[in-house]
Design goal:
The protein is built from seven helices and six strands; from the N terminus they run E-H-H-E-H-H-E-H-E-H-E-H-E. It is of the alpha/beta class. Helix 5 packs across helix 6 and helix 6 runs parallel beside helix 7.
Length: about 170
């Protein structure tokens, strides 16, 4: 039985770049510790947009270019990148069906005991991926470590945690 850690979008643009916040900056040390001490596979996701971002639906609704493939903002935070052992799952949107498929494949090889998510942003990509994982692996406990996540605002972070709890995602409060 394997427990899996998903590190969602811990990229420069979400930490102190185009969409960065002081809350995102504050979780970096805890995220690093969680990754370093985790016993099991660790999978990173990476928000990945192309030069035409402003022409996409997301770009029209959030007109702030960010995580453009190959830019400094797209890169995973250096102190976390040094802990990465596998290729990140690049995702063009909030949630990743590819991540769900990867976890389903991993579960077929060795049963998954739980999936824990940490990262950014609680209220957009963390919640989207938590619910996708629940759809792909409905009998596997999905957890979110609240102290290792940050939202667009503290209020929307709390709202997302409450919404996930209603969807039977276990919220860890360390």
């Amino acid at each position: 039985m394997q427990d899996i850690l998903i590190v969602v979008d811990m990229q420069n643009d979400f930490i102190d770049g185009a969409l960065g916040t002081k809350e995102a900056q504050a979780i970096v040390p805890g995220v690093k510790e969680k990754i370093a001490s985790f016993k099991g596979p660790v999978i990173f996701t990476r928000d990945t947009h192309l030069e035409n971002y402003m022409e996409t639906q997301e770009g029209k609704n959030l007109p702030v270019p960010h995580c453009i493939k190959g830019t400094e903002g797209w890169q995973i935070r250096p102190e976390l990148e040094e802990l990465r052992k596998t290729e990140p799952v690049d995702k063009p949107g909030f949630g990743s069906v590819e991540l769900g498929k990867l976890l389903l494949e991993m579960n077929g090889k060795e049963p998954v005991g739980s999936v824990t998510l940490i990262g950014l942003c609680t209220d957009v990509c963390v919640i989207s991926n938590a619910l996708i994982i629940k759809a792909f692996l409905p009998e596997v406990p999905v957890k979110v470590d609240a102290a290792c996540c940050a939202g667009i605002s503290p209020e929307s972070h709390d709202n997302a945690l409450a919404a996930m709890a209603m969807c039977q995602v276990e919220i860890l409060r360390s």
